[in-house]
Amino acid sequence: LRAARAIDEFVLAGGPQTLEPAFTFHGFRYVEVAGLTHRPKPTDVVGVVLNSDLDTTGRFQCSHPLVNQLVHNILWGQKGNYLDVPTDCPQRDERAGWTGDAQFFMGTAAYMMDVAPFFSKWLEDLVTDGQDAEGAFPDIAPNLNLGTGNVAWGDAALVCTERIHRVYGDRRVLERYLPAFERYAEYMAQRSEDGVRGYGAYGDWLNLGGGAKAEVIGTAYHAQMLRLIAQMHAELGHQEQARQWAERADHVKRRFQELFVAEDGSILESSQTGYALAFAFDLVPDDRRAKAAAKFREEMAKHGFKNATGFIGTPILLPALQKAGLADVAQRVLLQEEFPSWLLPVKLGATTIWERWDGWLPDRGFQDPGMNSFNHYAFGSVGQFLFESVAGIRPAEPGFRRVRIEPLPVRGLTWVEASYESIHGPIGVSWRKRGKRLQLSVTVPPNVQAEIPIPADASTVRLDGKPLPAGTGSTLSLGSGAYRLDLPLVEP
Fold it and tell me: Which pTM value belongs to this model?
């Protein structure tokens, strides 16, 4: 806890009293009571859950009990840290709005809870109040003057804004913040060498040997931030600006490919995170894609098909593996129960997400108590993969005006039930394996169009017990309603 000892001093006035401290909060799991002359009852102590009042919007259940507890831990950790600002942890003496942590978890956060009003306020802290005269955004918002413009931390302003627009369809955030983002792009350009961005104080924070060189991370993020600015202009109908920013993004992308993607597909001076960035941000040349995917698999094998990434690599690792055609590896990493993994802390009794993969291990005990939070949501970013890939609920247009339903029936799971309360209403997906068939149920709310990819042989698919209409094509389009599909089971 460092300097934030979880102690409140209370002067008794005599007679029965209730201790409920005001103007403070503590992150804790256990309470120690000493000095009593009688055995206390469990009801003598009541923990008051304190968090910003955000509706729960995402629900995910499956046939794997540990995964279900993982989802609970993700939500509980989000509640424990979303109190006015997205803090990194609720117990030690930081309790600060670290921007990197917020953007790494943002994709998951927006599925789990309605975070639109919460982030609308925090983006003012970060963008409007936080940007300095040079164009940099702070590493913490509200700004505590502990660093600015660091790779993946300063970039949070763009990433979080794009996600708010993607999930809720709010174009106003783009209109409001685009000028600030363009100033930030110039700040990045001034501190880059022909697009190569190498500075960054934190790197792939807390990785276990699966990180990447600073220039690989920085240049990948540079290209992606420019791409986001181009996309924002396109969304607002600014076609000429979109073209210009896309050209700048393409230039940095070419620089990444020239310097960091070898002819044999290797991402130079990189481990898991370097490959994840290259595939997640579409930086791999087409003619080296198959070779890079093979190298990615080799890199995962070096670590026993376990997660060795840190804060930067973890949110994108499983989506990047799937994008590289390595969904079989992604499912193996997801359901891994040995160290390091998402499920080991669950097996060890965790109720929230740990800051470190090795916060406590049976053969080692606790990590350094000076930095060993047990409620630190960054690694909970895997929740986005559960919703978008395993359940298959993904926005095809901002605000879920169109939704793509494409579940990944991973080995190790026999059924999944998930729902997301979009701004139009609940989107529901459930699937169950039956022999060599996949039974898929889909609920589409009003004013939403669902797109469901189907096999090349449409005659193998049944919709509500009937064959698909002739000429359906490769994608089935469905309006609002509830549907049952029966498809061939294709496991990764």
Answer: 0.96
H runs (alpha helix) in 359-416: 383-385
Q: Structure tokens of 375?
A: 């409620």
pLDDT of residue 1: 62
Average pLDDT over residues 442-457: 96
CA distances 265 to 209, 233, 251, 257, 287, Å, are 20, 33, 20, 10, 9
- Catalytic pick among 94, 162, 299, 421: 94
Strands 85-86 and 393-395: unpaired
Q: Are 141 and 126 in contact (CB under 8 A)?
A: yes
Residue in 162, 235, 355, 388 annotated catalytic: 355
- Judged by DSSP in three states, 13 sits in coil
Share of the chain above pLDDT 90, in %: 86
Look up 94 and say whether it is catalytic: yes
Instruction: Give me the helices (H) in 170-326, please.
Output: 172-190, 214-235, 239-260, 272-280, 289-302, 314-323
Structure tokens at 448: 């939403």
Question: How far is 492 from 153, CA to CA, in rounded Å?
Answer: 34
All domains of the chain in start order, with CATH? 88-333 (1.50.10.10), 405-488 (2.60.420.10)
Q: What is the Cα 243 distance to its own chain's centre?
A: 28
Res 61 pLDDT > 80: yes
Pairing of strands 466-467, 82-83: unpaired
Whole-angstrom Cα distance, residue 111 to residue 173? 19
Which pLDDT band, with edges at 50, 70 and 90, does 434 fall under? very high
pLDDT of residue 251: 99
Pair of tokens at residue 337: 């129960």
Q: Percentage of residues in the chain with pLDDT exceeding 70?
A: 99
